[in-house]
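dumping these here so i dont lose them again. two proteins, back to back, each one seq then structure tokens. dont judge the mess
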Amino acid sequence: MSGHAPHAAVEAAQLSEVAPGVYSYVQPDGTWFINNMGFVVGTDSVISIDATSTERRTRAYIDAIASVTPNPVTILVNTHHHADHTHGNYLFADATVVSHTACREVMVAAGIPDYSAVFPGVDWGSLQFRAPDVTFEGSTVLHLGDRRIELSDLGFVAHTDGDILAWLPDCRVLFCGDLIFHGGTPFALFGSVSGTLDALDVIESYGADVIVPGHGPHFGGDDIARVLGEQRSYLRFVQDAAAEGIAAGRSPLEQAQASDLGAHARYTDPERLAGNLHVAYREAAPEGYEFPGVPQAITDMVAYNGGAMPRCLA
């Protein structure tokens, strides 16, 4: 596919203190299954926001936490059900895992999926399934000493059915999971294009000083308006392309192949356009379009890539 190494080095992960006692753990290059996590250090314990995809990567993340504090991780939050954020749950043996109710339901139904056909060559390690222990809908608050970590759902489907935001009001840091792919192509195949657009409005309403996305670098200041604007621009491009394709009688794959990504071509994982268009077609023409299912959408993404599998360096 390219001259890249078969795996992105775990040593490339960037541990940053984004506020006192609050850390982001950003894994370059943020492509398939290379996600971000973060953690909050208290006097006696640690709360982690998400795990990661492989045993090797999760152990490296646990080592990074230990480089900051000897305190144990007692709570692990899953921002949504996708495997790159949840596969590593089992390595946090002493932690209570918290998620949205819908997140747990999907995880229990799916177990540990076999991704070998789409992502060959990934060393997943000796994964063991670990479902969340505590679930909620609406909102809840985690207390770490005097610090509050406010967990809230969106009330609608966005990246998935069961996305949650983790907000630290004292330092105005927001962890938003895969509602944002900073520098990457947004992905709505398991959710909603319009819902993801609405989620960006919710994120903006927090007035955060720092946002930690599910993939790509954390950002703050003037970059918040820029990144949110870029994500909105892409999602509206998908909606416009769907309208064009429906009017022309093209399939989602045919429309993806006919579309000029323009400025969006610089984002990683461009094949997601074919998958996103399936969702946008369903939303634009609910009576006239029958969704063929995720496997077909993934097949279309491979076809969009000229037969090459999605680039995964995990």
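---- next one ----
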Amino acid sequence: MDINQLVRKNVQALTPYQSARRIGGNGDVWLNANEYPTAPYFELTQQTLNRYPEPQPEAVITRYAEYAGVKPEQLIVSRGADEAIELLMRGFCEPNQDSIIYCPPTYGMYQVSAQTLGIACKVIAQTADWQLDLPAIECNLDNVKLIYVCSPNNPTGNKLNPEDIKALLAMAENRALVVVDEAYIEFSIENSIINWLTDYPHLVILRTLSKAFSLAGLRCGFTIANKPVIDVLQKVIAPYPLAVPVADIASQALSKENIKAMQLHVLNLNHQKDKFIAELNKISLVEQVYPSYANYVLVKFKQSSTVFQQLWQKGIILRDQNKQLSLAGCIRITIGTQAECDAVINALDNLQKTI
């Protein structure tokens, strides 16, 4: 029996998201997944694994709302921001009827989630300086329910012009939700637009504990919006999205003490990023290091395929971006520890002497 005969046609045609772990590699320096370079330590305090967890863990919701400066009713917590991306589509888009807009080069799961659910994608490429092409978006709003934008943007690292986001919100009023993915916002917290929620009922913010909080393995993310949007998502989310250990650790991570520790780690990492960029700019193989407001840098290399493969073979695993729209010659490098950044610079320095 050919099981593929039973598979939905859109899934048969689907190319899955190529996550860092799916791509694989063997090495000692992993700088391809935008993870924080060191792991925090937590001990479980709840020993209630015989019971189902709270549908929306009160301690997690309350603490994150306080941290973000919003009301608890403006929050829903999910299995990472990836689940939130899909929940919005499930709540607001009619399959085979409605569409989403996303603007590459950007995070690939917006497209993959839509294709999985049978929702059409309108692809509006960013401008040459990686900003929103507002005229093109405005011309393509028919049947669009969700517009996904990412700031700081992954993989480019730039922030979106806030005035452009305001213009996008204006043109989408009474037509679509504007979903701003702020997964990396802690690394440039002054650029958050979370305080705009009062003025824009159709604004949605996505957040996560995966990056600055150093909890990528926990899979804990947040959707922040006005209550009518959250009420819709409550209808379509799984009954128990967060396991007891996840909620336990997340609530600990969101204590005032641990938030202060996270903020100090961010300051240190941003300082490390500045030093790393300065060293990259001394390498002759580097054509350009783009400004970054996140915990990674996008670098355009001469002979980028050779650079990527040579470092890969040395156990330094980076993220090749050559196949992304307008990113020919580019490699994304997560900011690691001092030793990891030094390993990259030393490998590039040695390589430039042989090419």
